[in-house]
Structure formats: structure tokens, C-alpha cells
């Protein structure tokens, strides 16, 4: 649980070697940047909370190695765009929270493959 630690950047090396981690809570920080590859070792994560940060953009394939991800909370950020490659490998995603952002566009290709979403 890394919530409320005033983190501003998640670097590629910050979460290395955490392959057995199932829940990651990064909420209530001041995260503006998540480097590409920062989540590459997190192959067992089923729930990720990145809500209540200052994210504006999400790198392509950010969640690519998180193939077991079921719940993703990105609410209360400044995200404007969800690209077609952002959620590419998140086929098990059931719950995606994007409320309270500045979203202008969500690519159709970004969500087309999300067959398990609970609406």
C-alpha cells in the first residue's frame, strides 16, 4: 500500500521483482508520470488503484504485462485521452473507473476487446 506518500513519478525500476503482488494501491499521491515499463513485472496484479493523482497521459502498453488485471481505478486524475494501445492486454478487465477526469476521447479500439466489463 503506497497511498498518500506524495509520489510524483513511478519509474521503470520502482516496482521490479514484484511478480506475486496481487493488489497495488497508489491512490492519493501526486503522480504525474508513470514511465513506460513501470508495471512490467506486475504479472499477478488483479487490482490497481491509481485514483486521486495528477495523471494526464498513459503510455501505450502501460498495462501490457498485467494480464490478470480485473479492476483498474483511474478516477480523479487529469486524463484526457485513452489510446488504442493503453489497455491492449487487459482482456480480463471487469471494472474500469474513469470518472472525474478531463476525457476528450476514448479510442474505440481501446475498449473493443474488453469483453468482461461489468456495466
Automatic annotation (TrEMBL):
SMART domains: LRR_TYP. Keywords: Leucine-rich repeat, Repeat, Signal. Pfam families: LRR_8 (PF13855). One of its GO terms (cellular component) is extracellular matrix. PANTHER family: FISH-LIPS, ISOFORM E, SLIT RELATED LEUCINE-RICH REPEAT NEURONAL PROTEIN. This is Protein slit.
